[in-house]
Amino acid sequence: MILTQCAVCATDLGLTLGKKCGRCSTRYCGPECQVQHWKDGGHDQLCKKIKKAGGAEQYNANTKYTEAVAVAAEVCAEDTKGQTCYICTQALHWKTKEGLVRGCSCRGTAGFAHVSCLAEQAKILVAEAEENNLGTKALNERGKRWYSCSMCEQDYYGFVRCALGWACWKTYVGRLETNWPRSFAMHQLGIGLHEAGRHEDELSVREAELAMLRQLGAPEGNLLVVQGNLANTYDKLGRVEEALNLYRDVYSGELILYGTAHEQTIISASNYAWTLKALHRYDEVKTLMHKTLPVARRVLGESDITTLRLRWNYASSLYLDSGATLDDLREAVTTIEETERTARRVLGGAHPTAMAIADSLRRARAALAARGDDVSAVCEALRKAEV
Q1: What pLDDT score was predicted for residue 384?
Q2: Rg (CA), the chain
Q3: Which has the least CB within 10 A, 299, 319, 381, 387?
């Protein structure tokens, strides 16, 4: 995570509070914790090593990156068996000895790579754009290599996305806060931690990112994006009411700033609806989806992952509603069948979203199959089982 806590007592220090070790910049809430860490916490043995690595934040990033790469390679081990990296053509990386990963939508023998090879590729592309002053558009385009596959062009997910998030942060953590790659890297780290389910660590990153952007006077649109991500983190941590309030504010703000046909507004509508569904407010979900889905289809297309999630969310609200009619259940099944086929074709069957939609399809079919029984009782049971 971003180092915003005392290394001894974990007191939240934000971006500026407390004090730092004069040699390695390890953060403390005060001199007492610093002395304790030196005497009893092993800092006397690590201080020089941390300084040599570039300071506490860099040392932490390096350590977490190594751990994340090992986890990603282990998770992908079965899928990558007998394959080679499409970048360096080796099975084991010549220097790090890390295994292969594949966390995108590539199929067959395509898309296998080492995280370090993917990271080096992205680093070189961004560096070229910076050195040649190619501008913001080129930086954004080349920056995609930090999170999306150059072959299938789909975003990485799960533990692979987390490892790449740490790789990005490790690469740019030493930059000034006003420097684009550092802010970009913090954002990618937050997404990576979210993908890996590391939501407590993600919360620290999201809060630090929001505080930094406010301190720098970032544009309103940037703040709304980070607030939306923070709401997502609240949701995953079970702080659903806080998430709902923040999602509503973000969606309202983006409606004013961008209008209904902007991609970011559509994404925020999807997030807002998801939390409404978690609170069993199905009528509100349906109303919001009736407004948003036609726009998403027109602006993003039928195969876009946000459109797929919107359709899935809408159909789920149909079959989970205790007041669902038989027509509602039939519509839910038909909609999720279409959505599942598209998700499997576009994202691949192993993608978390495709797998979750397939699970919802089983639930919707079960509700429809029970049409001769008490439909409200079936919907209630499904709602309790819904993840």
Answers
A1: 56
A2: 23
A3: 387
Query: What is residue 42's three-state secondary structure?
Result: coil
pLDDT score, position 100: 98
Name the average pLDDT for the chain: 90
Annotated domain spans of the chain: 1-53, 58-179+187-195, 298-387
CA dihedral 148, 153, 157, 159 (to 10 degrees): -60
CB-based contact 103:165 (threshold 8 Å): no
The pLDDT assigned to 52 comes to 80
Which residue shows structure tokens 């409404």? 276
Q: DSSP code of 373?
A: S
Task: Mark 54-75 as b/e (b = at least 16 C-beta within 10 Å).
Answer: bbbbbbbbbebbeebbbbbbeb
Per-residue burial over 270-285, b if 16 or more Cβ lie within 10 Å, else e, is bbbbbbbbeeebbeeb
Q: Which residues contact 43 (CB under 8 A, 6 or more apart)?
A: 7, 21, 26, 37
Closest among 106, 88, 109, 86 to 97, alpha carbons compared: 88
Angle at 334 between CA 305 and CA 260, to 5 degrees: 40
Q: Which of 106, 166, 109 is nearest to 346 (CA)?
A: 106
Q: Which of 36-50, 63-77, 304-318 has the lowest mean pLDDT?
A: 36-50
For the chain, the straight-line distance linking the first and the last C-alpha, in angstroms and rounded, comes to 26
Closest CA to 382 of 318, 330, 338, 339: 318
Answer whether residue 319 shows pLDDT above 80.
Answer: yes
Could you tell me the CA-to-CA distances from 234 to 13, 239, 288 in Å, in that order?
20, 5, 21
Helix (H) or strand (E) holding 267: helix 263-278
Q: At a CB cut-off of 8 Å and minimum separation 6, what does 142 contact? A: 122, 125, 126, 128, 129
Residue type, 145: R
* pLDDT more than 90, % of the chain: 73
Q: Note whether 143 and 184 are within 8 A (CB).
A: yes
Quote the pTM value.
0.85
CB atoms within 10 A of CB 42: 10
Burial of 2 (0-12, 13-18, 19+ CB in 10 A): buried
